[in-house]
Amino acid sequence: MRLPAPSLPLLLAALATLAGCQAFAPQPDPATLPHATIAGTHVDAGQRVDTFRLLAVDGHAVLPYTDEPAKQIGHDASNVVVAGRAVRLEIEGFGFYDNAMRRLFWDPMRAQGVVEFVPVAGATYSLRGAIAPELSSVWIENDATHEVVGRKISVPGRGAAAAEAASAAKAAEAAAGDDQ
Question: Model's pTM, two decimal places?
Fold first, then answer.
C-alpha cells in the first residue's frame, strides 16, 4: 500500500513553521557577556514628573506589555546591553502631570527617538533630558564622564517660542553633524 504524497500547501506550512522557530531562538543573556548598564531617570518638577526611559534595545521592547507610566513614575528601570558592538536604543522623555485634567488638555511635552552608539564594558549610562513647552530633549550620558553619547533628540513643543526653539535645534543638529 502506497501513502499519498503530502499536498504542497501542507508542506509549505510545515516548512514555514520550522523556519519561524529559528527566528525566535533564545538570545544569550547580556549579563553573562561583557556589558554596560542603561538607567532611566526622572526629575520631580513639582506638579509633574519628567521621566526619561528606555523603550527598546535593538528593536526589542523592554517595557512591560501593560505599560502604565503612572505606576512607573519615580521607579527608574535599568537594563543591560552587550558592550563592544553597536546598539540601537529607542528612548523617550515626557512630562507626567499629577492633575488628570492637565494630562488630558495640556501640551504632552514629549521627545522620542533612536540613538545608536557602542557601549563600553562596565560603564553605566543614564538617560537625561529637559522637558519644556518650547522644546523637549532626551539624550544618553556616560555617568563617569558626563559626556553625551550618540545624539540628542529634540522635539519642539507648542509653546510661544516653539518656532525659535525649532530653528535653534536645527542649527545645533547641523553644527553637531559638522563636528562628526
Answer: 0.70
